[in-house]
Amino acid sequence: MKKTVIPASLFAFSILLTSSYAVTAEQSHSKWGYDGAGAPSHWSTLDPANQICGTGKNQSPINLTNRIEADLSPIEFHYDVTAKDIVNNGHTVQINLNSGAYINLDNHRFDLIQMHFHAPSENHIDGKSFALEAHLVHADKDKNLAVVAIMYDIGTENTALASFWTNMPHMAGDSKATPNNTNIASVLSEDRDYYRFNGSLTTPPCSEGVTWLVQKQPQTISDAQLKAFTGTQHGPNNRPVQSVFARPILQ
Ligand SMILES: [Zn+2]
Q1: Containing structural domain, residue 70
Q2: Considering the domain boundaries, does residue 123 fall inside one?
Q3: Is residue 66 left, alpha or beta, with left meaning phi > 0 and alpha meaning psi from -120 to 50?
Q4: Which of 110, 113, 157 is nearest to 137 (CA)?
Q5: What is the number of domains present in the chain?
Q6: FRET partner for 229 with CA separation of 20 to 30 A, picked from 133, 169, 208, 238?
Q7: How many A from CA of 214 to the centre of ligand 1?
Q8: Active site residues
Q9: In the Cβ-directed half-sphere of 199, how many Cα atoms lie within 13 Å?
Q10: CA distances from 89 to 78, 157, 176 (A)
């Protein structure tokens, strides 16, 4: 099912009711999304807190190209947890996890908070856009963020995602239980090589200082799995690629 669309007549009526409350009207216009008045090109002006979406020099996503060879130390994954629930928050579908999972990056611990999806992919690799991209969002004790990204091409069914997607939440605001037997480690690509760069949140307020770790090895999802996800969204939920500026992209 699609999300409920407010009939224009009802919308006009609600404007009439709230016309003396400028703040209410303002708020109704400041909703971010991926098309129309809330589209990515407008994010920086929707709210003063989003200014960096337009002015930042370390914005995500990017096209990963002109990479620099570096001796990247392996990411230590400690992903021995199961999912708590799966939620449609109106911008994506998010898998919330039971606590305890983390990564060690250069001997620095980042706790895994949640996993969510974008279709098509937000980051590109050598100009290529993928069918789907997963973001595993981590935070250290000082709230610094690190995101592990996984790319998906259309192909054979992804068994790890299948177990989490058995109960897809179709409507914004829906929350569903997930089978409590699949370890989140199963979603990772077997080959743990990765690209690394500094970036930002890909949604408002586009805060910078996020460490991006993109797994090199793409996975596959079936066409039906992709449709199961895109069917829960209004349309594409990817921010366009941003300028790299002076950032090194390490591999
Ligand atoms: Zn994301």
Answers
A1: 31-230
A2: yes
A3: left
A4: 113
A5: 1
A6: 208
A7: 12
A8: 91
A9: 27
A10: 27, 25, 12
